[in-house]
Design goal:
This protein is of the alpha/beta class. It has 7 helices and 17 strands. It has a 6-stranded antiparallel β-barrel with strand order 12-15-14-13-16-17. Strands 3-2-1-4-7 form a 5-stranded parallel β-sheet, with helices on both faces. Strands 9-8-11-10 form a 4-stranded mixed β-sheet, with no helix packed on it. A hairpin with a 4-residue loop joins strand 10 and strand 11. Helix 1 crosses helix 6 and helix 3 packs antiparallel against helix 4. It binds one RNA strand through helix 4 and strand 10.
RNA sequence: AGCCUUGUCGUCUAACGGUAGGACUGGAGACUUUGGAUCUCUAUACCGGGGUUCGAAUCCCUGCGAGGCUA
C-alpha cells in the first residue's frame, strides 16, 4: 500500500512516520509549504527549522521525501477566505478550511491521488461501519482534533489515516523521546499557522485597515467607548476593548454602522446562548437522518474544546438547529458547529454558524 | 462675585493620623493546531505649596481643578 505522510516537523507528525514504519509501511513524506511571505512580506512562516526536522525524520527512517508548495492555493482558499469572512463581520476558522481545501483538497489533486492513503498527525480516528469509513474521535478526548476535520467529506475521510489517533499525547511525546526525534521537545504549534510571529490583529489590520466606531452598551444604548473597526472583535470577546468598569464582553456587531454592542459583568446572560443555527450543513460520510421531524440527540462543539456539549438537533428546512443542554459562551457567526453522535464517538458533520439575523 | 461640596493607579473605588488595598483596563505567562473564553503573574496613584504632629492620603491654611448653590 502506498502511503503519503504529511509531516510538518512537529512532534505529532514526526511520530506518525515512526508508527507507519512499525506497521510495516514505507510512507513517502510530504512537507507542504503554505505560509510564505507574500509580496509585502507580511506572511512569514519559519519553515526552515520545520524542513530541517522533516528531512532528518525522512533520513532516519529511510523514507522518500518531497517538499511541495501549495502557497498560491493556500493564499487563494484560506487567506482570502479569512479576510473576506472577517470583512463581513464573521469569525472565520482558517485551520478548518486549510484541512478541507489544502491538506486534503489541493494536495490530493496534485500528489495524493497517486497514493492509497494519506496519513496525518491529527488526533482523530476512523471507524468502518456498513462498509463505509466514518470520522471518529480520538482516544485522548482532550486532544481530540476532529473539530478541525468537521468539514471534510466522504472521499477524503476514506483515504485518511491517523496513526497516532489512538494514543494519548503523553505517549506520543514518549515515543518521540525514545526515538530521539528532534521534535520531541518542540512546543505544540498554536495559532494560525500561516501567521508566524505576526499577531492576528496586525494581520487583519494590514488588510482591512482601521475605522473608528462606537462601542455601545447593549442594555442601555449608551455609547461607552470607541473601537478601531468591528473586524477586530468577535462575539464573546473580552480582551482588547479597553473599557474600564468591566469586564465587558462583545455581544453583537452592527457591520453596517460599524458598531459594537457590549454587556457588562462577569456573566452577563447576553453572552450566552442555547441555540445554534447551522447553515450549509454537510455530512462527512452519509446523511444519516435524511428529513426528519422532531429532534435527534447529539453532542457537538462550537469551537475546539476538550469537552463535548450535549444537545438536540432539529432540522428546519436547510437549517440544522442545535438546542444545547448547557448555555454556550460566545457563539460567533462564521465559526463551525461540528456535530457528533450522542456518545461523542462519530463525527457526523458540520455547518457554519449563521448570523442570528439571517434566520 | 459670594457660599457649599469635592480632588487617591488610565478608569471606578478602599484605607480609627501610622506609611496606599481591590476591581476593570494594560502587559507577561499557562492552556489551545481558528477567533475567543478561562487561569496565573505583573505594572501604574494620594492635585501643587505650606503648616500641626514622632508620624498625614487622612487635621489646618493656601493655590489650582471639578461639581453644585446664591440674584
Amino acid at each position: 500500500m502506498k502511503i503519503a505522510a504529511l509531516v510538518s516537523g512537529g512532534v505529532d507528525s514526526s511520530v506518525i512516520v515512526h508508527r507507519l514504519k512499525e506497521m510495516g509501511y514505507d510512507p513517502t513524506i510530504f512537507y507542504i509549504r503554505i505560509g510564505m511571505e507574500d509580496k509585502d512580506g507580511y506572511i512569514d512562516c519559519p519553515a526552515e527549522e520545520d524542513i530541517e526536522i522533516t528531512t532528518y525524520i525522512a533520513k532516519k527512517y529511510g523514507c522518500k521525501m518531497e517538499i511541495v508548495s501549495l502557497h498560491d492555493e493556500y493564499w487563494e482558499n484560506v487567506v482570502n477566505y479569512t479576510i473576506e469572512a472577517v470583512k463581513r463581520g464573521l469569525t472565520p476558522n482558517p485551520d478548518m478550511m486549510c484541512n478541507k481545501m489544502i491538506k486534503f483538497g489541493c494536495f490530493e489533486q496534485n500528489w495524493g491521488h497517486e497514493f492509497d492513503k494519506i496519513a496525518t498527525g491529527h488526533y482523530a480516528t476512523t471507524t468502518e461501519l456498513d462498509g463505509k469509513i466514518w470520522l471518529s474521535t480520538a482516544k485522548d478526548h482532550v486532544k481530540d482534533q476532529t473539530y478541525f476535520l468537521g468539514q471534510i467529506n466522504q472521499m477524503q475521510i476514506s483515504k485518511l489515516m491517523f496513526p497516532i489517533g489512538d494514543l494519548p499525547k503523553s505517549q506520543v511525546r514518549a515515543i518521540a523521546a525514545q526515538q530521539a526525534l528532534p521534535s520531541a521537545q518542540r512546543k505544540d504549534s498554536q495559532g494560525i499557522c500561516f501567521l508566524g510571529k505576526i499577531n492576528y490583529n496586525d494581520f487583519i489590520g494590514r488588510y482591512l485597515g482601521e475605522r473608528v466606531g462606537k462601542i455601545i452598551e447593549l442594555e442601555t444604548g449608551k455609547v461607552i467607548g470607541k473601537h478601531k473597526g468591528y473586524w477586530f472583535h468577535t462575539i464573546g470577546q473580552r480582551k482588547g476593548l479597553g473599557l474600564s468598569g468591566g469586564p465587558w464582553f462583545v455581544i453583537k456587531k452592527d457591520t453596517q454602522r460599524n458598531i459594537i454592542y457590549v454587556s457588562n459583568g462577569y456573566n452577563p446572560d447576553t453572552q450566552y446562548g442555547n441555540t445554534v443555527n447551522l447553515g450549509g450543513f454537510s455530512f462527512i460520510t452519509d446523511d444519516i437522518w435524511g428529513d426528519f421531524e422532531g429532534t435527534k440527540d447529539i453532542t457537538f462543539k462550537v469551537r475546539h474544546t476538550p469537552e463535548f456539549t450535549t444537545g438536540k438537533l432539529e432540522k428546519i428546512g436547510d437549517i440544522y438547529r442545535i438546542h444545547s443542554d448547557d448555555k454556550i459562551q460566545g457563539i460567533a457567526a462564521g465559526q463551525f458547529g461540528v456535530v457528533y453522535d450522542s456518545a461523542s464517538k462519530l463525527c457526523i458533520g458540520s455547518g457554519v454558524i449563521a448570523d442570528e439575523n439571517a434566520v
